[in-house]
Write a structure and sequence with these properties.
With 442 residues, the chain is of the alpha/beta class. Helices cover 33% and strands 23% of the residues. It contains 14 helices and 15 strands. It has helices spanning 15-18, 49-58, 64-76, 104-111, 149-174, 192-202, 221-229, 242-254, 293-303, 324-337, 344-354, 371-375, 398-403, 426-430, and strands spanning 25-32, 35-45, 82-87, 95-100, 125-131, 134-140, 182-183, 211-215, 234-239, 261-265, 278-284, 304-317, 357-363, 368-369, 412-420. The strands form 3 sheets. Strands 10-9-8-11-12-15-13 form a 7-stranded mixed beta sheet, with helices on both faces. Helix 2 (49-58) packs antiparallel against helix 3 (64-76) and helix 6 (192-202) crosses helix 7. The protein is elongated and about 80 Å long. The two termini are 42 Å apart. Mean pLDDT is 86; it is low at 1-20 and 428-442. Bound molecules: S-adenosylmethionine. S-adenosylmethionine (SAM) binds at residues 159, 163, 177-179, 216-218, 221-222, 238-241, 244, 267-269, 284-286, 289.
Length: 442
């Protein structure tokens, strides 16, 4: 009779645990709808996997042939330092090995799979198991894609460089508000101010003694427009770029609003503010620069007062499963702007994970115009539009020379998100429980 493996009471019983490396096996229950799937799982150094497979074989849980196939495929995948091994205690032979952040090229080779369906998406786990005796892979993508730790600094440098270098041309072209889409352009002039004020109304901002935080405040155009229209509000803007911060402060001084608008040089992934400080957080076309939306959402949640709101108007990616052409077009766009455009679903999930109640998360594409932005690329005689130049190359402006890219249709649309930090309940307050976002793994 086949014996089930003896997994010890909480720690692994195989020899590596006696060599000063105790492994904690945990019972993991996964839910598929209403059906629970219990697993016994352990995290262990990849180099120990072969040994554990051998132990499972000698315990009669896995056949020698299956163990060898699993081991060989696993080794060929050039796993990183750690792996997760799980067994279904009720099903002999049911062993799966998870590789965190696998190398995409290696996976393509090992699995022979066409990973194009992942579009630009990164794989957070590859699961290897035997299916009908043959090794089979399942690939998992995170619900919210974030850059691995090693790439965060590089991305941050890229964003900073883009804004440090291009701010003079951006400021000259667009003034103090830099957005690709204006909401409900009120007039043919397509001024930014009516757009910002309409967005502020959608954010629920009204004239009251409130503190607003503007994430990625640019040259403070939106903050100035809101503060002028609402004489009692105070606004703090954060911006990654030193160059932008200097100009934004200058703009605020010029507008005579230095007593109600502060501009702070900071990264919105790590806000230099106390908990529960702001009544509202706004972000206009800024979160697409985040290397990790989860971190930004957690920070926004932390600095908001209970009951406070977050409103974001963002350009978002249509889907994570883009076809190759759409993915390439979007990559070119993101490279030009130093962006990492997420999907609307990723924004939403990041906010929910942080603890927000998401009230709205939908497209506002029909109400947004990119025309002024596109026209700014070309040096046009008054009254002309690019269509009048069909067949001829219109002259590019300084902004156009640095941004024009003749890529096809971009898989993007404009969206808005409104989310609320739940009000702390009496019970939670009495118990001394601080309202916190979910800081668990992403
Ligand atoms: C497209 S501009 C929008 C600016 C402004 N919201 C507006 O409407 O004019 C994006 C802004 O986000 C800022 N930004 C990008 N990444 C950031 C980060 N990690 N922390 C703070 N600001 C950031 C940029 O410096 C830039 O000012």
């Amino acid at each position: 009779m086949r014996r089930k493996p003896t997994l010890g009471s909480g720690t692994c019983s195989h020899p590596c645990s006696r060599s000063g490396q105790p492994y904690v096996w945990g019972l993991v229950v996964k839910w598929d709808g209403d059906v629970p799937h219990p697993r016994i799982s352990v995290r262990l150094p990849s180099k120990r996997v072969a040994r554990v497979l051998a132990d499972l074989t000698s315990a009669g849980f896995l056949s020698a042939d299956h163990a060898r196939k699993l081991r060989d495929t696993f080794v060929a995948a050039k796993p990183g330092t750690d792996a997760y091994l799980s067994v279904d205690p009720g099903t002999p032979g049911a062993v799966a090995i998870d590789l965190p952040s696998p190398d995409r090229d290696v996976l393509t080779t090992v699995t022979g799979a066409d990973l194009d369906w992942l579009g630009q998406g990164q794989i957070s786990f590859a699961k290897l198991r035997l299916h009908g005796g043959a090794p089979a892979w399942s690939l998992y993508r995170p619900a919210v894609e974030a850059l691995p730790a090693r790439d965060k600094a590089t991305h941050t440098r890229r964003v900073r460089r883009y804004y440090d270098e291009l701010t003079p041309v951006i400021a000259e072209t667009f003034g103090a508000t830099y957005q690709a889409g204006l909401y409900e352009p009120a007039s043919e002039q397509y001024e930014a101010k009516p757009s910002t004020l309409a967005l502020a109304r959608r954010a629920g901002i009204e004239d009251a003694d409130i503190e607003i935080l503007d994430l990625g405040c640019g040259l403070a155009g939106p903050a100035i427009d809101i503060a002028e229209a609402h004489p009692r509000v105070r606004i703090t803007g954060v911006n990654l770029s030193e160059t932008q911060v200097e100009r934004a402060r200058h703009n605020v001084e010029q507008a005579g609003l230095a007593d109600r608008i502060d501009v702070v040089q900071a990264d919105f992934h790590a806000l230099p503010f106390a908990d529960d400080q702001f009544d509202a957080v706004i972000a206009f076309e800024a979160l697409g620069y985040a290397y990790d939306l989860n971190e930004v959402a957690r920070e926004a949640f932390r600095v908001l007062k209970s009951g406070g709101t977050l409103y974001a108007k963002e350009l978002v990616k249509e889907s994570v499963d883009l076809n190759t052409t759409a993915a390439e077009n979007l990559s070119a766009h993101d490279r030009t702007y130093a962006m990492r455009t997420p999907t609307l679903a990723e924004h939403r999930v990041a906010l929910e994970r942080a603890g927000f109640d998401v009230v709205q998360a939908h497209s506002i594409d029909d109400a947004v115009s990119t025309e002024p932005y596109q026209l700014a690329m070309f040096d046009l005689p008054d009254g002309n539009t690019p269509s009048l130049f069909a067949g001829r190359n219109p002259t590019l402006t300084a902004f156009g020379r640095t941004h024009f890219n003749d890529h096809g249709e971009l898989p993007l649309f404009f969206a808005e998100l409104l989310a609320r930090k739940p009000v702390a309940t009496q019970h939670a307050v009495a118990a001394g429980v601080r309202l916190r976002g979910n800081r668990g793994s992403s």
